[in-house]
């Protein structure tokens, strides 16, 4: 009996020590949290937003290095000519596959843009439209010839007056034209279909 009472007293003492230690630990963490909140309240978040905007603008000025410095109409011309004295055929093929990867985004932006209300990411000239896109590594301008731009814009009108099948056929034709022009006819049919389907949504 004495042994069980002794064990009970020892167990209660250990539990009290653990509870006291836990209370001290939690109070210390609460104090640290409180001082952190006070420090945060003293910060000027408006200057942080300005710094973030400046960082974002700097990132958008950096060209995606995976396009080897090609962007805009020059990029389209190199892909269409399938040759350039400054680039090897391997580099052109790499750029072509990367161009195809961002093409869907650019085409969708053009299709959804009203000609009288151009987005600030679009530049327009007499030969075509350039769509500014951000990538994980920087930015790129995807340039599309004016005749393809007008075909893309006609898709919106077609969506209101045609059947779904006619709309799909027209978007398939547009994508096939682009792939022929940039010498990518051998690209997988699934890639072409995915881009065409993104235009019908």
Structure report:
With 201 residues, the protein is mostly helical. The chain folds into two domains: 2-43; 63-199, no CATH class. 68% of the residues lie in helices and 9% in strands. The chain is built from seven helices and three strands, in the order ααααβββααα. The chain has helices at 2-42, 45-61, 72-81, 89-112, 146-161, 164-181, 189-199; strands at 122-124, 128-135, 138-145. Strands 1-2-3 form a three-stranded antiparallel β-sheet. The longest helix is centred in the first third of the chain and has 41 residues, at 2-42. It is elongated. The N and C termini lie far apart (82 Å). The model has no long low-confidence stretch (mean pLDDT 86).
Total strands? 3
Average pLDDT? 86
Proportion of residues in helical segments: 55-70%
Low-confidence stretches: none
What class would the helix/strand composition place it in? Answer: mainly alpha
Q: What's the alpha carbon Rg, rounded to whole Å? A: 30 Å
Residues in β-strands, percent: 5-15%
Provide the succession of SSEs. HHHHEEEHHH
The geometry reads as elongated
For the biggest β-sheet, the strand order reads 1-2-3
Q: Report, as a whole number of angstroms, the end-to-end distance.
A: 82 Å
Summarize the main sheet.
Answer: 3 strands, antiparallel
Oligomer: single chain
Number of domains: 2
Treating each run of at least 4 consecutive H or I residues as one helix, how many helices?
A: 7
């Amino acid at each position: 009996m004495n042994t069980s009472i002794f064990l009970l007293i020892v167990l209660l003492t250990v539990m009290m020590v653990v509870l006291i230690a836990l209370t001290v630990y939690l109070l210390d963490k609460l104090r640290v949290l409180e001082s952190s909140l006070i420090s945060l309240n003293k910060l000027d978040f408006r200057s942080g937003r300005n710094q973030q905007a400046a960082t974002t603008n700097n990132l958008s000025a950096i060209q995606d290095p995976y396009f080897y410095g090609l962007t805009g109409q020059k990029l389209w011309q190199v892909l269409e000519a399938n040759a350039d004295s400054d680039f090897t055929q391997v580099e052109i093929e790499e750029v072509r596959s990367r161009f195809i990867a961002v093409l869907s985004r650019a085409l969708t932006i053009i299709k959804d843009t009203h000609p009288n209300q151009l987005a600030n990411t679009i530049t327009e000239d007499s030969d075509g439209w350039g769509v500014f896109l951000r990538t994980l590594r920087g930015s790129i301008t995807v340039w599309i010839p004016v005749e393809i731009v007008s075909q893309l814009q006609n898709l919106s009108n077609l969506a209101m007056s045609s059947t779904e099948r006619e709309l799909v056929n027209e978007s398939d034709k547009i994508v096939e034209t682009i792939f022929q022009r940039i010498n990518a006819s051998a690209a997988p049919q699934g890639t072409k279909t995915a881009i065409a389907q993104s235009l019908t949504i």
